[in-house]
Amino acid sequence: MVSGNPQLLIQSDTGITNQIQYCTNLSQGWWLALTNVVVAESPYCFVDLATPSLPQRFYRARVVSPTPSGMALIPAGLFTIGDTLDGESDAPPTNVYVSAFYMDANLVSYSQWQTVYTWATSHGYNFRDPGYGKAANNPVLRVDWYAAVKWSNARSQQASLTPVYYTDAALTRVYTNGEVTPYVKWAANGYRLPTEAEWEKAARGGLSGHRFPWGDTISESQANYYGCASGCAFNYDLGPNGPNAVGAIGGSPYTSPVGSFAANGYGLYDMAGNAFEWCWDWYAAPTFPPGSPYLSGTDPRGPAGPLSDRVVRGGDWVDLAAAAKCALRYYFQPTHEDLTIGFRCAMRF
To answer: Fewer CB within 10 A of the terminal residue: the chain, N end or C end?
Structure first.
């Protein structure tokens, strides 16, 4: 326990990277990064400027690995999932705590998909559809939920990581074939789909209470969606009208190369538009009474299921601006695949 204005000394062996984290209640175990600074050398000192009017803090230095290539670290913390900006009936706002995790900076591209797909099909994996991409650097499309999950396992195994999804409760048989609801080894270090709560926290990029990752209006210079600045009821769409000019290159489908637009506050691209993204969760509307949260607590993973649909988030190239909002929830049956849905992977921190 540290109080007043003490100096805290964190010892670190040379070459070991530590992140300074704190919490105010050890029984909850919600550790937050004190700053973005990590400890790379020993010793490391800082001054706690807490005053008696503020809660006491507990500190630790956690050994962390470098952020995996192509991914971004999403920091732990409370955030408000959902909003009331446009009367989204199935997204009432509530505070949710999400532990730190890594997220792909980009949607899985078609070339990335093909590389793992080729490895997977030569190592016992089976997919109903080979996937599709407008170009190598565009997002992969025509991937159903089951394919995204199996591909994540293959990506893990190809990288010598522990797969996340299994076909037995004992977590011994890696999910490689068929269309089944898998068991999940959440502690595994492999790739997986983000939960719905993780996805929205990542999409907001640390900016709370807004429609989009950058604010409350959207234009085709910020995301790939179908513009409707005139003739529609969305006063937050600045257009112009029609398909995004970046995506129009090469014809339909009007996806754009991943990373074509500015990143959000966490360094993630295309969290609004380009392609919808599969999440882990079964879709369920909020419980009654109206306004009750659909997710709550710490690291929620949605209803137990099985239900009929899985969540997709983020909007796409053919839908209007409303679909690209951070709080917009949509869903499809897990066997559904079309030219609007892709995905990106998450990984435990």
So the answer is: N
